[in-house]
Design a protein that fits this description.
Shape: globular
Number of strands: 10
Structural class: alpha/beta
Helix content: 10-25%
């Protein structure tokens, strides 16, 4: 008791700084000073969306129906139910004026997630949530979300979840990272619990799509390249950087993968024609970045 009284006395004179939290208070975390973009971001929980993590600009007053936040829905590698491997990458994207809704529990430390696997329907829950929040007058996101500009994306297992959900009519573009559908011949090498749609699922894609792969040492390289070569009904491209399956997500601000992903999202969700130059044309900007290669299908150069 005496120690508590002493501590309270010291606090009164400014000698001790203490904070109190309750178990039901939503968790949040500032990642890498909020990112390098013009809108410093925050990673946070939202009580209205269990088992998901939100990355969003800290100051929502900058956004309204005339300047809304496009949406990135994200699925994690290894079907992890936490974006613990990708939070720097996702936070960086949010700092450029996006709301990112990632599958799984918020990573408050850098420790590896150990827990239940995620489910494909969590991406659909993310889309449902942003639609509802934008329409809810009591939500801080009311009329601040571009519900017609939704990208669905994921890495490895998250990429398989993305392709599983590709037919959802609300999707404007897809981004498949270090992933691709398994052929029947190599399906046995998949990790148990992963979604395993057949290659015919690619026919249900109705939007533009980019594959971001880690080169020939990426375990998903063969599957992703095979996907790309099968897609001829929508604009598609495949980019490669020879860094392997792990990508650059854990590098500061997500590394090179965030540069490519952000440019794609700026172009496809915000109509940024300067960002489009990274991909369009025989001498596109991506080829000027060390190590990157790109292939495009016959419909790609017509993509607006």
């Amino acid at each position: 008791m005496k120690k508590l009284i002493s501590a309270l006395a010291l606090m009164a004179f400014g000698f001790i700084s203490m904070s109190f939290t309750t178990d039901d208070q939503p968790k949040s975390r500032i990642v890498e000073d909020g990112g390098t973009g013009p809108y410093k971001a925050i990673m946070k929980e939202e009580p209205s969306l269990a088992a998901h993590t939100i990355f969003v600009p800290q100051d929502l007053s900058k956004f309204n129906s005339d300047n809304p936040l496009p949406v990135l829905v994200w699925g994690n590698g290894a079907c992890a139910n936490s974006p613990f491997e990708h939070y720097k990458f996702l936070n960086e994207i949010a700092s450029y004026g996006f709301i990112v809704v990632a599958t799984g529990y918020i990573p408050m430390t850098d420790e590896r997630y150990h827990g239940e696997m995620s489910k494909t329907e969590q991406q659909i829950e993310s889309i449902d949530w942003v639609m509802a929040q934008n329409a809810d007058k009591n939500s801080p996101y009311y009329q601040k979300i571009a519900v017609n500009s939704i990208a669905v994306a994921g890495m490895s297992c998250g990429g398989l979840q993305t392709l599983y959900n590709c037919a959802d009519s609300r999707i404007r573009t897809l981004m498949v990272c270090n992933s691709g559908l398994f052929n029947r011949e190599n399906a046995g090498s998949a990790v148990g619990g992963m979604p395993m749609p057949p290659k015919e699922k690619l026919n249900e894609i109705h939007s533009s799509i980019i594959y971001i792969l880690g080169g020939e040492t990426d375990i998903a390289y063969g599957n992703g390249m095979d996907d790309f070569h099968r897609i001829n009904h929508v604009p598609a491209c495949v980019t490669n950087l020879p860094v392997g399956h792990g990508g650059t997500y854990s590098k500061p601000h997500g590394g090179e993968f965030s540069v490519v992903a952000l440019a794609w999202l700026q172009w496809q969700l915000k109509g940024d024609q300067e960002a489009a130059k990274l991909f369009k044309g025989a001498d596109c900007g991506l080829l000027k970045r060390e190590g990157w290669t790109i292939e495009k299908n016959r419909l790609f150069e017509n993509l607006k």
